[in-house]
Amino acid sequence: xxxxxxxxxxxxxxxxxxxxxxxxxxxxxxxxxxxxxxxxxxxxxxxxxxxxxxxxxxxxxxxxxxxxxxxxxxxxxxxxxxxxxxxxxxxxxxxxxxxxxxxxxxxxxxxxxxxxxxxxxxxxxxxxxxxxxxxxxxxxxxxxxxxxxxxxxxxxxxxxxxxxxxxxxxxxxxxxxxxxxxxxxxxxxxxxxxxxxxxxxxxxxxxxxxxxxxxxxxxxxxxxxxxxxxxxxxxxxxxxxxxxxxxxxxxxxxxxxxxxxxxxxxxxxxxxxxxxxxxx
Length: 280
Prior knowledge:
- The structure is a single chain.
- It is built from ten helices and no strands.
- It is mainly α.
- The chain has a single domain (8-230), classed as 3 helical TM bundles of succinate and fumarate reductases, CATH 1.20.1300.
- Helix 8 (161-188) packs antiparallel against helix 9.
- The longest helix has 32 residues, at 195-226.
- The chain is globular and about 65 Å long.
């Protein structure tokens, strides 16, 4: 009986692994930007809101950029990563003991990230931006974030201690997965081949991981502080002033869907910034 033909993934293992490595670096770059942008909340609600305004400056082109540079690479990386984990693509390499446990944790954090990213996108953005869908997911605790009231809505969304703990676990999983992935990519692409170079690279990756982990956890703490009852009204007032000023100057298009408490009139400066109108 002739041997079965190798699967598509086995036949193209070399190419798939390198694409998996490259998309992992794209994902890691996004993680760095995302965590550092979120950590700006430690400088106050205004600083964080300015960064979010800059991120949303491309307007309708933002969706194209997100899918091209973020979502599609992450989906490809996640799909192939799950395939590697369950044995779709055999592990043909021999890992020394020191790297073997990191390889195992890499797979575990990858699965954690797959679940966490799904939760995070639902919790903050609701997955899909259709009014009928949003009306439903808000009742399930989704779609909590509004870009033009960034600090206040993120802060309120993280007031639940269990939710904050889930975010902390997700952040630490993302950081480990990224920095260990950098080290693995360096081996895969032949950047560091000698044991001494690999040891130095591992130290550098660990230092980067410590910095990113601190930024990520600091962002969670800072957002929770903004969302506290004694701070929330000041944050909302600052966000509304910034929104009105940018709309009046033409630097920001009016978009009430990106606010937590849309204005009841057409003119700028007439929004109601009461916590009763924030997403729950």
